[in-house]
Amino acid sequence: MRRHTAGFTLVEILIALTIASLILAAMSSTFHALVTVQNSASASSSDDRVARTVMDRFTRELVSACRWTDTPAVLSMGADQSKGMVIWTLAYGAPRKIEYYWEDEKLWRRETDPTRIDPSEPARLSGVTQLGLRYHDGKTWADEWQSKGAPAGVAVELRMGSILYGSIVTL
């Protein structure tokens, strides 16, 4: 009697399938980890980009702050109102009134161009969870600016999630 030797036994096929399954499971978990890391880095990069844009714009507007004889360059709202800042700036050519303020736990920016009849709608600056402003009178730092003149400097602290961004602007 002749024995047929071509092909694989059931045991050999089961062993090969088990090894292939283990290899695919390892590759799948590695791929999942890579996708998770990439999504996390992308979200962090997006927050960094927004924070840099807000800080750059804020700094440019503060450095270009202007003042008329009856208007202080920087107005800080009192403690009973939402925390914010109002400035007149020449950062965009013609003078514009810029307001940054907190409302509903969000940072808002409103720009008023005196050459337009209707002020712009406020824009929500997404991702910002905290804005801190401190003012320097040349000697000490204060949380509010009540003087008629411009402060010697403004410290801006912007929080995006758990990351704190900061800048000090001298005027």
Poorly predicted tracts of residues: 76-82
> Strand order of the main beta sheet, please?
1-2-3-4-5
* Radius of gyration (Å): 29 Å
Instruction: Give the topology string: H per helix, E per strand.
Output: HEEEEEEEEE
| Terminal-residue CA separation | 103 Å
Total helices: the number is 1
Characterize the main sheet. Answer: 5 strands, antiparallel
The proportion of strand residues reads 25-35%
Topology of this protein?
Blueprint (H helix, E strand, L loop, with lengths): L9 H54 L10 E3 L7 E6 L6 E8 L2 E7 L10 E2 L5 E7 L4 E2 L10 E8 L2 E8 L1
Antiparallel strand pairs: 1-2, 2-3, 3-4, 4-5, 6-7, 6-8, 8-9
Question: What does it look like?
Answer:
The protein has one helix at 10-63; strands at residues 74-76, 84-89, 96-103, 106-112, 123-124, 130-136, 141-142, 153-160, 163-170. It is α+β, with helices and mostly antiparallel strands. A hairpin with a 4-residue loop joins β6 and β7. The protein is built from one helix and nine strands, in the order αβββββββββ. It has a five-stranded antiparallel sheet, covered by helices on one side. A four-stranded antiparallel sheet has the order 7-6-8-9, covered by helices on one side.
